[in-house]
Amino acid sequence: MLDLRADLESISRKVGQFLKSERTSIAKSDIIFKGRANDLVSRADKEAEVLFISFLEKLLPESGFIAEEGTSQKVGAEYNWIIDPLDGTTNYLYGIPCYCTSVALQKGNELILGVIYDPERDECFTAATGQGATLNGEPIHVSAETIAAHSLIAMGFPYDNKGKQLAYLDLLAKVNAATRGVRRLGSAALDMAYVACGRFDAFYEYGLHPWDCAAGAVIVREAGGMVTNFRGGEEFLSTRTMVCGNEAIHAALLPILSSWE
After folding, report:
1. CB 113 within 8 A of CB 1
2. Contact criterion met (CB below 8 Å) for 131 and 222
3. What's the rounded Cα separation, in Å, for the pair 2 and 79?
4. Do the Cβ atoms of 80 and 104 come closer than 8 Å?
5. C-alpha distances out from residue 133 to 38, 83, 109, 151, Å
6. Rounded CA gap, 117 and 86, in Å?
7. From CA 71, how far away is CA 187, in angstroms rounded?
8. What is the mean pLDDT of each run of 10 residues along the chain (261 residues)?
9. pTM check: above 0.85
10. Does an H or E element contain 33, and which?
11. Which of 103, 122, 187, 200 could form a disulfide with 88 if both were Cys (CB 3.0 to 4.6 A apart)?
C-alpha cells in the first residue's frame, strides 16, 4: 500500500497542476449547471476526471470508479476509486484559490487510502490505513483542543437544501454560540484536510456525496480524529451527514448536531 500511496500522490499532483494551469482560461461558456444554478461543473472538472481515470486504470487495472462527473461506469469487484476531480468548483471558477483534488480507494466497504491535493498552496495530504497521515511527507495530527468554547469549526452548505435551510441556519447559530467561531471555505475535502492537520478542530456538513468526504475520512482518522454521521454512527457515506474532528470536540458537537438530524 505504501507504493500505491506514493503513486496516488504523484497522480494527484499532476492533475492538480493541470487544474491550476487551466484556471485562468476557463470561460463562462465552459460552465454547466448540474440541475441547480448554484451547482456548477466546468470543462476542467470533466477533463481532470478523465485524467484521473486514465492514470488510475493503469495503476490498478482491476479497480472500478465512483466519480462525481460520471466519466466511467466501471465497477470493481473488490477495489473502487472514489474521485472528486475538483472539489471547490465555484471557488475555482470565481478565481478564489481554495479548491483541491480528492481521491480515495475503497476495498469492499472499507476506505483504505486517501489523497487530497491543493495545487495553489502545493499541499498534499495523504493517508493509508495503519500508516498515519502526512502533509507533504511530514506527519500530521488533529488538534489537541479539548474545550469547545476555544475551538474553531468549519462547516458547509449543501447545494440542495430540500426545505431545511432555516433548520440548518439554526444549527449553525447553536454551533457558533458553543465555539470560538465557524468558517466556511467552500471545499469539504480541504475542510477535512485542515481538521487532520489541526487548523480546524472540527468540520460538519449534510448533503455530502461519497466523493466529497471519502479521502478526507481516511486522512482524518489516520491523523487521530473521529469521523461519523450526526448521530455518531459509522454510516456517514450513506446518511450524507458527516462530522469530523478531534475526539473531544467531535463529542461536544454531537449533541447539537444530532438534534437536527
Report:
1. yes
2. yes
3. 16
4. no
5. 33, 19, 20, 22
6. 10
7. 21
8. 85 97 70 50 83 95 85 82 94 93 96 98 98 98 98 90 82 97 97 98 95 97 98 91 97 93 60
9. yes
10. strand 31-33
11. 187
